[in-house]
Specification:
There is one protein chain. This protein is an alpha+beta fold. It contains 10 helices and 9 strands. The strands form 3 sheets. It has a 5-stranded antiparallel sheet with strand order 1-2-3-5-4, with helices on both faces. Strands 6-9 form a two-stranded antiparallel sheet. It starts with 23 loop residues before the first helix and ends with a helix. The model is unreliable at 1-6 (pLDDT under 50).
């Protein structure tokens, strides 16, 4: 690290965005019912982002808390289920120390018009497209961080969910088939004239659906920007955030999802334009090295798994293409005016092209 003080690199909230302010008096009154020691109102700020659930910092004199709530006007409760997100973390915490401590979950929508939950804040560094300005890691530190990221995913996939509340997420065998069928249906509902090539990819995936490689808790959004790093040693992970997509499923599909976002230093210009985490830094593992390390750590480094890996790789990219197409569809039909979405159709075409390229090179079997 280039500076002796690590505090400037800790992820900080900012003033609440206009139109997204909390009714903090109502929240404070409700929290006092669970925590009578609370006296004065907290200082409130809001974290960046917010395309999904909104996240706030509640700074009390003796408590440092985070509040999560759905965006205003949300209609699809299944996509912003605060209770589900709270229960997953609360059940997981005893077995996975990287989950923040849960504080309270409010189901009473009369408080602020929606349900919300509060958890302990884990202060640290959150790696986004780039590390915080001024923070420099050596290639050795970067490699240690990368290995730690993969190892924590291994730890998650090893957790025994039996006899825990996490079993309520379990829909039984057939996870891989449900995912392929589900994402294919989602794509078919949001097709536009300027995106081509998905039919071939969907047919290829459908023909090669494997039996589930395992049955465990999966995060489904495992990325560097969902990790909190130790501000004094950024190669150490101290928390994992954003559990809203977590479920019980196939661990290799979880890894395939994670690697769909993995942009390495030698990727082409278009791939580099999609980068949203610092996987390009000297010392980072390549996608292939991540797969090899994960399979070795989980005892899956055999010829059968290696030969099937192309399915999980294509699946992850296809899923990401569908997510991008869902966003573009809203822009295409003027359901949103956000100019950032104008050229998402180009991204979708590129991701589908990558799927077809991988299939041509390694997926003919």
């Amino acid at each position: 690290m280039s500076q002796s003080s690590s505090q400037p690199y800790t992820d900080q909230a900012k003033p609440q965005r206009r139109g997204e302010e909390l009714d903090i008096e109502a929240i404070h009154t409700w929290l006092q019912q669970q925590h009578p020691e609370l006296k004065e109102l907290p200082q409130v700020q809001q974290f960046a982002g917010g395309a999904s659930n909104w996240t706030y910092h509640l700074a009390y004199p003796d408590h440092d808390w985070i509040l999560r709530r759905p965006p205003a006007g949300t209609k699809a409760k299944s996509a912003h289920d605060m209770g589900r997100e709270y229960r997953i973390q609360d059940a997981l915490k005893p077995q996975f120390p990287y989950v923040p401590e849960m504080v309270a979950w409010c189901q009473d929508e009369s408080v602020i018009g929606c349900d919300f939950y509060v958890m302990e804040r884990v202060a640290g560094i959150i790696p986004r497209a780039n590390m915080p300005r001024g923070l420099r890691l050596s290639p050795e530190q970067t490699r240690a961080l990368c290995l730690s990221m993969v190892d924590r995913l291994v730890d998650l996939h090893r957790i025994d969910i039996q006899n825990t509340a996490l079993t309520e997420l379990d829909r039984g065998e057939g996870y891989a088939r449900r995912q392929i069928e589900g994402w294919s249906k989602r794509y078919q509902k949001v097709t536009t004239w300027n995106v081509k090539g998905a039919s071939y990819v969907m047919a290829w995936l459908k023909e090669r659906i494997p039996q589930d490689s395992g049955h465990c808790l999966v995060h489904n959004d495992w990325r560097f920007d969902n990790l909190v790093l130790n501000a004094d040693d950024p190669s150490q992970i101290i928390a994992v955030l954003d559990w809203e997509l977590a479920t019980v499923g196939d661990p290799l599909m979880d890894l395939g999802n994670a690697l769909a976002y993995w942009v390495q230093a030698d990727d082409d210009r278009l791939m580099k334009a999609t980068r949203r985490q610092p996987t390009h830094l000297p010392g980072m593992l390549t996608r292939q090295e991540v797969v090899e390390h994960y399979l070795q750590k989980t005892g899956r480094d055999n010829n059968d798994t290696l030969s099937q890996w192309v399915f999980y790789e294509v699946y992850g990219l296809f899923r990401l293409a569908v997510i991008a197409q869902q966003i573009y569809y809203r822009y295409h039909h003027k359901q949103t005016r956000n100019p950032a979405f104008k050229y998402f159709w180009f991204l979708v075409n590129y991701l589908l092209w990558r799927c077809r390229k991988i299939i041509r090179q390694r997926g003919r079997g």
